[in-house]
UniProtKB/TrEMBL annotation:
Record region (Disordered): 389-442
PROSITE patterns, sorted: PH_DOMAIN, RAS_GTPASE_ACTIV_1, RAS_GTPASE_ACTIV_2, ZF_BTK
Gene3D superfamilies: GTPase Activation - p120gap, domain 1, Pleckstrin-homology domain (PH domain)/Phosphotyrosine-binding domain (PTB)
Source superkingdom: Eukaryota
Entries under SMART domains matching the protein: BTK (SM00107), PH (SM00233), RasGAP (SM00323)
Residues of the Ras-GAP domain: 1-152
Domain PH residue range list: 206-312
Keyword Zinc-finger: yes
InterPro entries with a match to the protein in the record: PH-like_dom_sf, PH_domain, Ras_GTPase, RASA4_PH, RasGAP_CS, RasGAP_dom, Rho_GTPase_activation_prot, Znf_Btk_motif
GO annotation, biological process: cellular response to calcium ion; intracellular signal transduction; negative regulation of Ras protein signal transduction
Gene giving rise to this polypeptide: LOC111145821
Name of this protein: Ras GTPase-activating protein 4-like
Alphabetical list of PANTHER family matching this protein: RAS GTPASE-ACTIVATING PROTEIN 4-RELATED (PTHR10194:SF4), RAS GTPASE-ACTIVATING PROTEINS (PTHR10194)
């Protein structure tokens, strides 16, 4: 996400701030008055189209320039993945007529699944706090179309689809050359460089979750006020930190090892059902609580899950907590008067969301793969018989980059070995405990 913000952030901000009317489709052009008060004249369709083309050429050029400069900033794992994809596709399609195919394979992910979605919906990628209005959305959509045309390597099919994008063709053709040069440098990463980059990134403690939250901290014994200050928070494997803006310097708020609980706060405490509390110990070992308000219940659950996952192995996790706040001289939830009393509700430190980036359970994943292969074993055997018959007739050939024909036979043999080992394990008696001489019974 940090890489995406570095490449797209300035361009997206510029589009939102300028709020220019941009349209290339003649059937959708709105002719408007231009000029000073008293000197208005209607702007012609040709002027609207020309100004729109100039604006989009400027945005597209700035985006491609930023992308070209971002090779070193791209995460090493992404570069290694694209390198493997590029090489495999080039091995499969080695002919000169397929020169662009490896590049298109990479841009199918880079542009279609990464850049274009973020351009069209910047709020979903935390590039902006609010959704774009209708005018800005149209500009972003046209820019995303232009980026995709560059990613398609300016093929005749993409040009014929929307002929009114023709004014951008000079910039698109120049962008194709820039993008190919960028991809060539991007996939040119050796294993040693990849390891060095991974080591550097690992030292940077990448964020587990980040985004805007409203903070309220308890001070003294006075009544709590429901005023929250908006800050940008970042949770890493080391600490929960905050900053005024995503790009400004961060200040550590809570060390990860000091977190004792992350729980919801009852709605009546602050008049909102989207408030959570993080209970932790400060450097002096004294318990402290910080209250954080999220924008919606989904965001609340995601933050709670992330905080619980990174602190689940912490020593001293609390078994109970107060879902209310200490207001005046008592807790609002249970009315206990001692602030240090045990909580009146149990904590839920192991209640988390199952997400795509959770660490894998290797035993479980291996079992799922094996079960799936056993389910399609009959189909695999049938396919193997077809391939074997074709090989004998001389009709099956191994193409560039393809696996040898006996790979399927090896897979089937592994499945047989696994089933045999499983049956043997079920048939054999459970291992008995070693016998040790016990004490004499008297």
């Amino acid at each position: 996400m940090r890489y995406l913000h570095g490449v797209l952030g300035p361009i997206i901000d510029r589009v939102f701030e300028e709020k220019k009317y941009v349209e290339l489709d003649p059937s959708k052009v709105e002719v408007k008055d231009v000029g000073c008060s008293g000197l208005h004249r209607p702007q012609t369709e040709a002027e609207v189209l020309e100004q729109s083309a100039q604006t989009l050429r400027s945005h597209l050029g700035a985006l491609l320039s930023a992308l070209s400069r971002s090779v070193r900033a791209c995460p090493a794992v992404v570069r290694a993945t694209f390198r493997q994809l590029f090489r495999r596709v080039r091995e499969r399609f080695p002919g000169a007529q397929h020169e662009n195919v490896p590049f298109i394979a990479v841009t199918s992910f880079l542009c279609l699944r990464f850049l274009s979605p973020a351009i069209m919906a910047p709020k979903l990628f935390h590039l902006r706090e609010r959704h774009a209005d209708a005018r800005t959305s149209r500009t972003l959509l046209l820019l995303a179309k232009a980026v995709q045309n560059v990613g398609n390597m300016d093929t005749p099919a993409s040009r014929a689809k929307e002929a009114w994008m023709e004014p951008l063709q000079p910039t698109v053709r120049q962008g194709v050359a820039q993008l190919k040069d960028f991809i060539t440098k991007l996939v040119d990463i050796e294993e040693k460089e990849e390891l060095d980059l991974q080591r550097t990134l690992s030292l940077q403690a990448p964020p587990v979750k980040e985004g805007p939250l409203f903070i309220h901290r308890t001070k003294g014994k006075g009544p709590l006020m429901s005023s929250f200050k908006k800050l940008h928070f970042s949770l890493t494997t080391e600490a929960l930190s905050f900053a005024k803006t995503p790009g400004s310097k961060k200040s550590a708020l809570i060390k990860l090892a000091n977190i004792r609980a992350a729980e919801k706060v009852e709605e009546k405490s602050f008049g909102s059902s989207h408030v959570m509390q993080v209970i932790y110990e400060d450097d002096a070992g004294k318990p402290q609580t910080v209250y954080l308000q999220c924008k919606c219940v989904n965001e609340l659950n995601q933050w709670l899950s992330a905080l619980r996952k990174v602190s689940i192995s912490n020593p001293g996790l609390l078994g109970s907590y107060h879902p209310g706040v200490f207001r005046g001289d008592k807790w609002s939830c249970c009315h206990q008067k001692d602030k240090s009393d045990l909580g009146c509700d149990k904590t839920r430190s192991r209640v988390t969301l199952q997400e795509w980036n959770d660490p894998l359970d290797h035993d479980l994943e291996a079992q799922l793969i094996c079960r799936h292969l056993l389910g399609v074993e009959a189909a695999l055997r049938e396919k193997h018989r077809e391939l074997s018959a074709g090989t004998e007739a001389g009709s099956v050939h191994t193409g560039p980059g393809e696996a040898p024909e006996d790979a399927l036979a090896q897979l089937l043999q592994v499945l047989r070995d696994l089933q045999e080992a499983h049956r043997s394990g079920l048939a054999s008696p459970p291992p008995s405990e070693p016998r040790h001489p016990g004490p004499l019974q008297t």
